Structure formats: structure tokens, C-alpha cells
Amino acid sequence: MSSLTQTINAPNGVSYQQPTGLFINNEWVPSSTGQKLPSINPATEEEITSVHAATAQDVDKAVRAARAAFEGDEWQSVVGTARGKLMLKVADLVESQQHVLATIEALDNGKPYSQALGDIEEVFSVFRYYGGWADKTYGQTIETGRHKFTYTVREPIGVCGQIIPWNYPLGMAAWKLGPALACGNTVVIKAAEQTPLSILYFANILVEAGFPPGVVNIINGYGSEAGSALVQHPEVDKVAFTGSTPTGKQIMRLASDTMKNITLETGGKSPLVIFDDAQIPNAVKWAHYGVMGNMGQICTATSRIFVHEKIFDAFARAFKQYVAKTQVIGCPFDEKTYQGPQVSKAQFEKILEYGRIAEQEGATILAGGKIAESRPNDKGFFVEPTIISDAQPHMRVYKEEIFGPFAVLVKFSTETEAIRLANGTEYGLAAAVCTSDITRAHRVANKLKAGMVWINSSNNSDFRVPFGGVKQSGIGRELGQAGLEAYSQLKSVHLNLQLTEQI
Ligand code: ADP
């Protein structure tokens, strides 16, 4: 046991015990081969620790634990109200340990500590929200005539394999665990290679709250090994994934052999359309938040910003100034920092590469495109916030998801053109529109091909509201009441009231 925890001392003075094993059946175990993966601090490029990385054999063990828990009396006898109580306890424990959890996220992911605290608030809010739903997911009685009594029962799906990304590590885990547990499923959840730490700390909270063994099993591991073993395991009934579109497609293929229920939340290149009647300061504020927040590592980032030609120059000037003023780059634990490092060397290099591509493609670089000169100690995966103008629809910077603080400004002249450009993408996750004309706002919202539309804001999401995409941005919805549908299924029961007495 002692070899499966390590004391971590964070730069903000927080010292805590970091679990490093696999969490299966409420116990900490090493991986079957002893293989590990390193957790790198992206602000310093130094290794924080390394954690056990599951093999296919470990995944099998975790899935069997989840299956046994799902079929067993201990979890089956926990009725919705009691499940809700367990979840509320988790919420309280997360809230009381929010400083440690936010510290871990800042250390492991690189996001500023203040923003990490916001992530943790989302975690306990989501657990409270779905804890409240746990005894409110029932079926219906259906009128089918005098000779029959017919009803539906809303049942859990079974064992859920959940695969989460690195941009909001514990936040994304909460979005998946909340509805899964509220509906009475059991889970094997895998964190992303880049951010393995916070979910391991969270595992101990589940035990403290009183979750029975096997209900939630938490593993780290490589996507191509542990992730793909989880997706293909015949005892997994449902797969929920958040990550890139290419990986989402691969997961769909892998899950098809056993025809699993799937929920996918994948990539985007979301548009923000700013009309000439928009309030420019408001548009600037949200344009900035929508693509520069969380180091631009947001699947719903409104990274293509379409601006009416009448206000284009004024907007571009104000946006550039606002970004320069707000986007303070620095150590995640420095209170002044707005932008920490990108999560990994691979992401850092990818964003810098797009800076070079923009130049080669002939776009105008209004700001950024390079390594941040102000990065502390000349180390860490810090990039300059980048603003590109004169981008054309055929250019890679215009079409491809970059997943960094990288905005592409595009001029338009009519509403029809703006809608055509906004929809001219394989993605359909989110969209935003800024205008003072309420009729236009709704008309445009109606025509935008996206799972979510913000009017006069961007990326202003809420855990009570469904989240998800259309086209190649995903399948199904998370959050809100709709999130429960992804983790439950209906059974229809037909009771014959007219028994035959003679044949
Ligand atoms: P990125 O490209 O940004 O690293 P991915 O979409 O590849 O993002 O990864 C998101 C999550 O999907 C991670 O937890 C990763 O381990 C997992 N993953 C990657 N490849 C696979 C795969 N083939 N099967 C299952 N999970 C995978």
C-alpha cells in the first residue's frame, strides 16, 4: 500500500498524499506488469510522479469488478434516494477538499489555480444536481385499452466504460459519473494520460462517502491499450467518451462489435458571429473568453470569429488590446496568471506548428504565433495567445481544431453569408451570435447547425442544460435531465388483464 501513494508538495504550500495505483473494487492495486506512466508538470516540464498504467488484463479485472457490483445485492439494494444521499456526501467531501483538488489540477494540467477552483465547484455542483435526480428517473403508465395494463420502467444500462480527456480532468469525470451513478449503473473510468492525478485522489472520496466496492473503478492507462481494451470488453454495456473526433470515430468502430450504447462528445471549430449592431465591448469580452479561456483547450471554443465588415477593424483592434491586457501568462499558482501552459509538449508543439502554417498559408498574424517570451524560467509549454486575420475557408487554420489560444477572425457582409460560413464545417458542437436585434438573434440561432447556441455570450455553459454536438461533434447529450437518458434505458411491460379461461 505504501508504495501506491506518494507525498506531493505543491508550490502553493499544499502537501497531500497522492495515490498512484489502480482503484479496483475499492482497493489500490499495482498494474499487472508494474508498468507506469509519468505525470508531467507542464509549467516546469518536470515529472511530478508516475502512476500505474492499466494493461488489458487490469481492464478486465476492473470490468469484472464493475459487473459483479452491478449484479450484486449490495448495489442493487441501494434505492434511488439512498444513491442520491451517497452522491450528496461525495459533493460535500469534494467541496471540503476543493483546495487540494484544485491544487492537483493546477499542478498536473497547468491551469491557473483560480480557474481550477472553478472546475472543482463544477464537480460538486454536478454531483449535487444528479444526486437530486437519483430518485426521480421513473417510467410511465401508457393507456393501451381496457384489456391491458402497460408501463415502462427506466433501468440502468449496466457497466459503463467512461473515457475522459485532459482539459477539465475531474470536471469531465463528474459529467459522466453523476448521471451514471444517479441511474444505478456501475463504472470503469479511465483518465487521460496527460492528467492522471486528480481522479485518483477523488477515488478515496468515493470510499469515504460509502460507495460499495466495484461500483466505481478508476484506472489510468494509455488510450491505445487500456482505452481500447475497455471499449471492446464484452462485459461493458455502454461507452461514454470525450476527446478528439478521430479518436471518437475509432471508439465507435471498436464498440460496434458488441453494439454498445455510446455517447460521444468530440471536437469542434465553433463559430461566433458578431453583427454590426452588437455591443462591441460585450462581444470582445465573450470572444476572448470563448477561445482564450482554459488556454483555448475547450472543445466548444468559438475559434472562428465572424465579424461584420462595418465593425471589423474596430473589433479587431479592441479584441487584440483586450487579449494583450487580460491574457497574463505565468505560473498556475501566481494569482495574476490568466494563461498557464498548454497541457503537454505535444499540444504546445502543435499550436506553434499552426502559427507557422498560418504564415505559410498567407493569413495575417495580428498577434502571437510563437513561444511565450514571458514564460517563467524559460521553461514550460507556454504559447503566445494568437489572433489570425484574412483566413480563407480552404486554410488549415480556418478548418482544423487547434485546441489552443488561437482565434481566427473573418469578415462577412450579410446575414446569409455569415450563416453559410458559420455552418461550413464538418463540426457542429457549439455556436454563438452577438447582436442587439432579438429577432435576428433567434432567427440565426435557429439556422446555426450546432448542439448549443449562445446569444450575446460564448461558452457560458451550465450543468443544468444539455451539452453535446451534431454532425462530427458527437452523439448524445450530457448534463441536464437529458444526461440521464444516456445512462438509462426503458423496459416496456405489457400486462394482459384478460386471462383466457378456456381453449
Ligand atoms: P488527444 O488527442 O487530445 O490526446 P484523445 O481524443 O486521443 O485526445 O484522448 C482522449 C481520451 O481518449 C484519453 O483518455 C485517451 O487515453 C483516450 N483514447 C485515446 N485513444 C483511444 C482508443 N483507441 N481507444 C480508447 N480510448 C482512447
TrEMBL record:
<protein>
    <recommendedName>
        <fullName>aldehyde dehydrogenase (NAD(+))</fullName>
        <ecNumber>1.2.1.3</ecNumber>
    </recommendedName>
</protein>
<dbReference type="InterPro" id="IPR016162">
    <property type="entry name" value="Ald_DH_N"/>
</dbReference>
<keyword id="KW-0520">NAD</keyword>
<dbReference type="GO" id="GO:0046394">
    <property type="term" value="P:carboxylic acid biosynthetic process"/>
</dbReference>
<comment type="similarity">
    <text>Belongs to the aldehyde dehydrogenase family.</text>
</comment>
<dbReference type="GO" id="GO:0006598">
    <property type="term" value="P:polyamine catabolic process"/>
</dbReference>
<dbReference type="InterPro" id="IPR016161">
    <property type="entry name" value="Ald_DH/histidinol_DH"/>
</dbReference>
<dbReference type="GO" id="GO:0004029">
    <property type="term" value="F:aldehyde dehydrogenase (NAD+) activity"/>
</dbReference>
<feature type="active site">
    <location>
        <position position="265"/>
    </location>
</feature>
<feature type="domain" description="Aldehyde dehydrogenase">
    <location>
        <begin position="28"/>
        <end position="493"/>
    </location>
</feature>
<dbReference type="InterPro" id="IPR015590">
    <property type="entry name" value="Aldehyde_DH_dom"/>
</dbReference>
<keyword id="KW-0560">Oxidoreductase</keyword>
<dbReference type="InterPro" id="IPR029510">
    <property type="entry name" value="Ald_DH_CS_GLU"/>
</dbReference>
<dbReference type="InterPro" id="IPR016163">
    <property type="entry name" value="Ald_DH_C"/>
</dbReference>
<dbReference type="Pfam" id="PF00171">
    <property type="entry name" value="Aldedh"/>
</dbReference>
